[in-house]
Design brief:
By secondary structure, this protein is α/β, with parallel strands linked by helices. The chain folds into two domains: about 220 residues, no CATH class; about 140 residues, Nutrient germinant receptor protein C, domain 3 (GMP Synthetase, Chain A, domain 3). The strands form three sheets. Strands 1, 2, 5, 6, 7, 8, 9, 10, 11 and 12 form a ten-stranded mixed sheet that branches. It has a four-stranded mixed sheet with strand order 13-14-15-16, sandwiched between helices. A hairpin with a 2-residue loop joins strand 11 and strand 12.
Amino acid sequence: MKVGRARIASAAAVLAASLLTTGCWGLQPVEKTGLVAVMGIDLATGGYEVSLLVGRPSGTPTSGGLGGSSHGKPATLDEAAAPTVGQAINHLRAATPLALNFTHLEVLVVSAALARSGLAAPLALLATSRHEVETPWLLVARGTSAVSILQALVGELPRPGGVAVDTITQARQGSPYQAGHLFTLFDEMNLEGDEFATAGARLRPTANGPRLAMDGVGLFRADRLVGWLDGGAALGWLLATGRASRPVLTVPSPDGPVGLQIKGDRRTIRVRRGPAGPVATIGIRVLADVVTLPPGPADFWRDPGQQAALRSAAAATIADDVSAALAAARSAGADVFSLGEFVRVSDPALWEADRATWNTSGFPHLPVRVSVQVALSSLGETVCPSLGSC
């Protein structure tokens, strides 16, 4: 069941009133302004714990907030707990000499526990303040708390939140773990036959270099986290929904694994009425570079038989990945493929019969045929993939 915009607005009315009327989002002189770059929200006893990574203007005190301290770093980490997110932000405003400004909020991190319990209420204030907030990426802390993610980013340069944004950008360019925007969540909560997905965030177990890494794709039904896509399933989802950028696909061959970097893809989705109900077809066409080959003779690209076998193996691998993504999404009851939207457009009468139970009984049982075609280019050019070693 979708969560309507009216529900978000009503939940936000009390929370937003005190913040917006007292200038929480208002403009202040630069030397007195703390730009909030990253925001974290965790569940706490009786409410929420809000953590803010705040850029510290030159010349301002080196400590602030409720125990937060920069120790000479370009940002402070301030934390407060309260029954509502709005009240926690008010506590943080009262405890810092800076005027907190959210117009440069780049990343919002929520804990998995909070996401599973529902984001409509804790994010109601942001939902009603789009004109005051930068379009932030939404990440789900996986295996850790949201505040732990922010703690790892305090000392990262060149700017507060820069490492988080760079990590997301790199993931979008070369991995299956892509983040979604916060306001996309709000919009898709109000779309029928369409569900939201975003990346998980995990701390790396090393002290060298940035400690943040993307990890899996979280599946949402309305405002609640209900499952994850990992590995090949995440790549299958990207390709089936037209989101892939340049991820690397590893394909088995008799001589060893072959690395293909996908540089172009096209997908089509069709839904038709069958004797027993709607039937969907997902067609995917991929253009890929051969980037790594098994050790051996360098005449791979001269053998049409080997080329055909590799194309076939790549198509089978992609089809398996898409099928794995479909299985995970069906199990979670989250139509992140937007197949319900295609049913609604292609057969409105059929959609009206299925819309009320689409995620629980329609999408999980929708027959889906996956068709994949692969074309290869740059044959014989062995280069290192963007992820991992050669």
